[in-house]
Input
Amino acid sequence: MFKQKKSIAKATKNNFITYGILAVMFAGSLIWLESGAMPRQFTKLLVPLCTYSIAAVSLNLVVGVLGDLSLGHAGFMCIGAYSSAVFTNIFADVITNDLLRFFIALLVGGIFAAVFGFLICIPVLRLKGDYLAIVTLAFGEIIKNIFNIVYLGIDKSGLKIAINSSKYTEIMSADGKTIINGAMGITGTSRDSTFIIAFVILFITVAVSLNLINSRTGRAVMAVRDDRIAAQTIGINIPKYKLLVFTIASFFAGLAGVLYAHNLNSFSAGAFDYNASILILVYVVLGGIGNIRGSFIAAIILYALPEILRSVGEYRMLFYAILLIVMMIVNNNDTIIDMRKKLVAKLKKNKHKTTANEGGDI
Amino acid sequence: MALLEVKNLGIVFGGLHAVEGFNLTLEKGSLYGLIGPNGAGKTTIFNLLTGVYKPTSGTFTLDGVKLAGKNPVEISKAGIARTFQNIRLFKNLSVLDNVKLGLHNQMKYSTAEGILRLPRFFSTEKKMNEKAMELLKVFDLENEATTLADNLPYGKQRKLEIARALATNPKLLLLDEPAAGMNPSETQELMDTIRFVRDEFDMTILLIEHDMKLVSGICEEVTVLNFGQELAQGKTSDVLNNPEVIKAYLGD
Ligand SMILES: Nc1ncnc2c1ncn2[C@@H]1O[C@H](COP(=O)(O)OP(=O)(O)O)[C@@H](O)[C@H]1O
Ligand SMILES: [Mg+2]
Output
């Protein structure tokens, strides 16, 4: 009984550290921002940092918790970005309350991405091996290429859609409003993404992920990851849990896409290509596979660093490369992880000595 | 009515008749042994009975319910649980979580209740912890509850697998070489535990084992399998003295 309580306490404590880190980062950034002292170079980073943190945490649900490789996570961001931006542009004059409209836009983007995630996952369920990686890779590229050729506008007679510009100018009346302009993407979406909203969504993503992992569902998912056959023979329905996790992860990727789309004057599908998916995967791997806290910390450091290092000019990418290597070693090398744990344990012990009361084994 | 009724069960792997014409009737509460040389088809029978493989011929019923052709999840829910010859634990999860996973279909709350931390999450998790600790105590593993399954010594991993199987609340428990890799004193202890499980949980147990001391010590009846076919069947002491059986083993 005693030990068991301790394990639950340990998981809770670990989660509290994660929430604590988030809270400190949030408060710090907010105070800095509100004081007006934050340089422009940093203020424009705040929403993207949250966006990529959300993307990394949600991808970690697939890669670290479900144990499947996904190479098309940016594709779900793309779905979220486009669907929500189309919504916002159509309803810009109908729903004038920005906050309400953005809230609906978030739901639209998240749900569209989730539906695609669900549909993408179905054909993969019956296959063993890294088929999810192949299918998601193809999905990401297809989505990007489709959005690259789509033209969508609205005029008096309703929505107009075409897949090349000459056809589009033919069907579209001159006084209409263009929403998706082929490879140029979407311009003029109301810039509703604020740091506070973005952060709240990051917080929700982290909380949902941690609660999911520490629940009956999360256990079942990790059981599938560790041993499919054993999981089946104790009655765990593998397809159900794969679909569930993949759909949830896609939903949050969609939210990240909504934040992205509503943070810029214009964006296009090119932002969600294969490189973007790999970048998010790099955050996950370097933050530690299965480690939710590591995902957003890695995303923040690795996204912000190139910006901060602009001052050192051409050496920028050199520092970036060194940091990548160091993080990879620190988070993924067993010996180093062991050393790190011992160091933390030692620090704790010293603290106990100085406070000189509680003894015992931790 | 017998608990398990296996009739003419068989499977062919690309021309190889791994199991052929296998029959077995298990009464409730029996402790039955399945023995035979390596490659005889013993594990394959377990894979058939748990739905990991689909039989190419024959059928079997549990408590009168036909289970042949059903998938592992359905069979688990119907009441057959097993352990594996090559231990299959959830390595990166704690000992406690491994057993709680066995309770997956016994004690439930929805994903939403888990994510939103609704009252049923807390009450069900509490019940799960209590039940899992109870099972761990039976196998003397309660002090290792927080240890990662992968970090347990071999003998304890085997016991944990049995605890996890029992957590699914089965009617029939299949043990695939439970004493493999154990030293004589561990094996002796395991025999006591298996008997205890049968008596205390009112369990029906079918086990595969190479350790003849264990088999003759706890199994009332055995079937000997050779090249996928039944070689002998009956009371353990009689069968183990059967010259054909001795020949099959020595000739291996
Ligand atoms: N999935 C499979 N595919 C092909 N052959 C198999 C498969 N599973 C088992 N066999 C074969 O069936 C025979 C019986 O194996 P098994 O049941 O594991 O024997 P044992 O009695 O030692 O447990 C062996 O010849 C083995 O190679
Ligand atoms: Mg075997």
User: Anything to note?
Assistant: The CA atoms of residues 151 and 181 of chain A lie 5 Å apart. The longest strand of chain A covers residues 151-155.
